[in-house]
């Protein structure tokens, strides 16, 4: 009898744990995975990826400890210049044919203030995986006119593209590089709560 009670207890705890989980997915119509990199030191070029999928799993009332994962289709890079985009897809940069996806696997989501979090995860580009830290701002959670629960986040951070094998460059006469070494990430995500 004691064994049966113990088994029932653990099943109940497991059921409560599962029911406490909330699943969210990226609402791509209202999200953007963007980046900025300097061009010839004097200007910035903005870009984005058009195709991606992402999920977030939360355990409690807020996003502390959330599990964040997303996958980006490398070939979907878009800087509003087809010639440049094709160069970025080539082996000089992303080698999109050989490495069709960029992945982020979240390791921790730590609350640092009321609506600020630090998101840490493994980012893989061109088969090279490095840990990255992103600042995450929770802009709020609302219900849309159709009864869907939505949560908005802005993620910012930077990475050294050379560390991921994106090493193409050439110097300019005045010094400096044609394409900046540091890539600034500007990611706006609207999450939709799954029923």
Structure described in brief:
With 195 residues, this protein is mainly beta.
Give an account of the 3D structure:
The protein starts with a helix and ends with a strand. Strands 1-4-5-7-8-9-10-11 form an 8-stranded antiparallel β-barrel. It is built from 2 helices and 11 strands, in the order αββββββαβββββ. Residues 7-18 and 171-177 have low confidence and may be disordered. With 195 residues, it is mostly beta strands. It has one domain: Beta Barrel (Lipocalin). It has helices at 2-20, 82-89; strands at residues 22-26, 32-39, 43-49, 52-58, 67-73, 77-78, 101-111, 116-125, 128-143, 149-160, 179-193. It is globular, with a radius of gyration of 20 Å.
Strand order of the largest sheet: 1-4-5-7-8-9-10-11
Oligomer: single chain
Strand content: over 45%
Cα radius of gyration in angstroms: 20 Å
The CATH class turns out to be Mainly Beta
Q: Compute the average pLDDT.
A: 85
Task: Describe the sheet with the most strands.
Answer: 8 strands, antiparallel, barrel
> What is the total number of structural domains?
1
The CATH level-2 architecture is identified as Beta Barrel
> Can you count the helices?
2
Number of strands: 11
The name of the CATH topology is Lipocalin
Principal-axis shape: globular
* SS-based class: mainly beta
Structural key phrases:
195 residues; mainly beta; Lipocalin; 8-stranded antiparallel beta barrel; 11 strands; globular
What secondary-structure arrangement, pairings included, does this model have?
Blueprint: H1 2-20, E1 22-26, E2 32-39, E3 43-49, E4 52-58, E5 67-73, E6 77-78, H2 82-89, E7 101-111, E8 116-125, E9 128-143, E10 149-160, E11 179-193
Antiparallel strand pairs: 1-4, 1-11, 2-3, 2-11, 3-6, 4-5, 5-7, 7-8, 8-9, 9-10, 10-11
